[in-house]
Amino acid sequence: MRSLSDFPEKNSFVVCRVRKIMDFGVVMDLEEYPERRGFIHISEVSSGWVKRITDFVREGQRTVCKVIDVDRNRNRIDLSLKNVSAHQKREKIEEWKNDQKAENLFRIVAEKLNKGLDDCYESFGKGLIENFGSMYPAFEEAAADENGFSEHKGFWVKTFVEVAKENIEISYVKIRGKFALTSFAPDGVERVKSVLNEIEKNGVKIRYAGAPNYSLSVESEDYKSAEEIMKKGIKAAMDVAKKLDVEAKFERLKC
What we know:
The protein is of the alpha+beta class. It has helices at 86-113, 117-132, 135-144, 146-149, 157-167, 188-201, 223-244; strands spanning 13-22, 25-30, 37-41, 62-71, 76-80, 173-182, 205-208, 213-220, 247-253.
């Protein structure tokens, strides 16, 4: 699904495809940012000694990288392969696959509405991404709670819900929240990262939703346990935010 930003954020994870392997690094196409390419220096390929880069990646291979630096003026994106754990890779690939599914479902919605894809994106798609962090959670909520989602207003809502219910099977409950984090300290990025790490340690999933906002979600077998996980994660994060002098604001979103 298209992104609200033209560039990935520093420290985020991105799905990439190997475009070219050189002696000193790898050129990568960023799957979620079609106009962008990134570069992995040989020192970021593996934590061990790298004799041949081809021992770790091959041309055309899809993998997950961590964004370690972004220079918008120079159109430069530096990536790391060694700083991605197996767990982080699995989560990112799953997220990316869900985004691909959401893009196909959104296209179906546009066709049923007899509207252009770009028109639908501008009319309500962009707003859903801003609200949910990405499009797939919007389809999930529409499938799980038709009445709650119908509180959204617009000509598109009924069709959106119909497509969601026809194509997404919900076998768990999901609650959401929005976290805004701001720090003006010289090392503010690292401080915010510490707060986010505290949330993740407590089982809350995080997705960047445009500075300074982050979309939070918890999936569980029932609402009671989901609320307990969210509450615990937010309390721990707020404690760290206070200690690090990071301004934090949490908003529990209706599901």
